[in-house]
Amino acid sequence: MHQPKRQPELVEGSLPVFVFPTELIFYADDQSTHKQVLTLYNPYEFALKFKVLCTTPNKYVVADAAGAVKPQCCVDIVVRHRDVRSCHYGVIDKFRLQVSEQSQRKALGRKEVVATLLPSAKEQQKEEEEKRIKEHLTETVFFEQSSQPENRTVPSGPSLLTVFLGVVCIAALMLPTLGDVESLVPLYLHLSVNQKLVAAYILGLITMAILRT
């Protein structure tokens, strides 16, 4: 005779808790947000009992802070903010939902939900819009910078001075050498061999400089 399989015993705190939303935001200038709903889901094959705890219970009213959830069902937990004052703006409070089997006392699962009171929904929307604009501008600037071609130095041609020196050296090499009697060029334009060697050396340097540019 086969004995029915026993469900494995759950360890304390190991059971996942499904609650929505996980964050409550109250706005001081919008009374419709002073009352919000937490929905607790039970996807399991056994019933759960739950309990809602809060770090600042004097600021909130929780309807049905304790109760039970049938298998594969859900319950709504109403949370009301009853202390809407400017000194509480931006303060983060926490709710803790503890669940356990109906026949047990130990908490099989826990889930925390944060709650915040903000001064104005319009101001919050404005801040979020400004944040989105800043992020968009940052992305645009980054895209423009990354899409710009790399700055490259355009190689420039030889300068006018270099060209002029080259022409002078060529002209010097074409002038007659001292001692050349048959030349029609005036004697003062006759260059010595050493002068022509200097002109040829300078012309070689200019040619190398032009080829490197």
In percent terms, what proportion of residues is strand?
A: 25-35%
Question: How is the biggest beta sheet arranged?
Answer: 5 strands, mixed
Rg (C-alpha, Å): 45 Å
Mean pLDDT, to the nearest integer, reads 81
Any low-confidence stretches, pLDDT <50, length ≥5? 1-8
Shape: rod-shaped
Strand arrangement, largest sheet?
A: 2-9-8-4-6
| Series of H and E elements | EEEEEEEEEHHH
What is the terminal separation in angstroms? 99 Å
Structural class: alpha+beta
Number of helical stretches of at least 4 residues:
3
Which percent bin holds the helix content?
25-40%
Give an account of the 3D structure.
This is Motile sperm domain-containing protein 1. This protein has about 210 residues and is an alpha+beta fold. The chain is built from three helices and nine strands. The chain has a five-stranded mixed β-sheet, with no helix packed on it. Strands 1-3-7-5 form a four-stranded antiparallel β-sheet, with no helix packed on it. A hairpin with a 7-residue loop joins strand 8 and strand 9. The longest helix is centred in the middle third of the chain and has 27 residues. The N and C termini lie far apart (about 100 Å).
Protein traits:
single chain; 213 residues; alpha+beta; 5-stranded mixed sheet; 4-stranded antiparallel sheet; 3 helices; 9 strands; 29% helix; 28% strand; rod-shaped
